[in-house]
Amino acid sequence: MTQTPTKPHPAPSDTAKRIRLVVWILLAAIVSAGLVWYAALTASRPAPEVPQPAANAQLVRGDSHRLTSPAVEKAQLVEFLDFECESCRAAHPLVEELKKEYGDRITFVNRYFPLPGHRNSGTAALAVEASAQQGKYEQMAAKLFETQTQWGGKQESQAALFRGYAQELGLDLARYDAAVVDENTKERIRKDSEDGTALGVTGTPTFFLNGKKLVLDTEADFRQLLTDAAR
To answer: What sign for the dihedral angle of Cα 90, 192, 64, 142?
Structure first.
């Protein structure tokens, strides 16, 4: 009597492997969908080996961009940033909220730190600094973060696009053009970057609160640190 062959059943070990694979795929999806600002805040974690600050490095200089001017300063929060950095763009709305909440007690300071892997980060910094010379630092910075998805990551120069933004902001374009090519403007940005490197900045955004480099895990931690410093 001929027996009908039966299909082999997967071994228990194979089934277990498949289940584990599905679980790992689901976990990976959950992690990748986590809060954007978490990646932004943890970008300031120190490298395993942090260089000692150079003797002439300064966290804040006389010409640093102070975004708030409290009548009585309780603390200073310094941010080193790159306008082409996705984490900086993700952190920007939170920083704006914190400025409104703590700006009457804490001085918020921005410093340039263009990363070498970003083709237009230096060009963006020049556009912002040229705009700052006409009193439009925050407006140009906000514009670049708002439009970053349109120009970030491109290999060709975005200088013309940034000049268009300057026109939209009502800047004197002759003054803007002169500032962009001025060696003093470039040196201003280089000095920020050099200070950041000497102070141990390795990525952006990196925050310093009252001179201490912050290692942040959550938005709640960030707020609590500012609350404590502002008392």
So the answer is: negative
Contact (Cβ atoms closer than 8 angstroms) between residue 206 and residue 79: yes
The pTM for the full model equals: 0.80
For 192-211, the pLDDT digits (tens) are 999 999 999 999 999 999 99
Q: Which residue ranges make up each domain of the chain?
A: 38-229
Sequence-distant (≥ 6) Cβ neighbours of residue 59 within 8 angstroms: 78, 195, 199, 208, 211
Strands (E) located in the chain: 65-66, 75-81, 106-112, 206-209, 212-213
Integer Cα distance of 150 and 92 in angstroms? 17
CATH homologous superfamily, domain 38-229: Glutaredoxin (3.40.30.10)
Q: Write the single-letter amino acid at 116.
A: P
In this structure, are residues 148 and 83 in contact, taking their beta carbons and an 8 Å threshold? Answer: yes
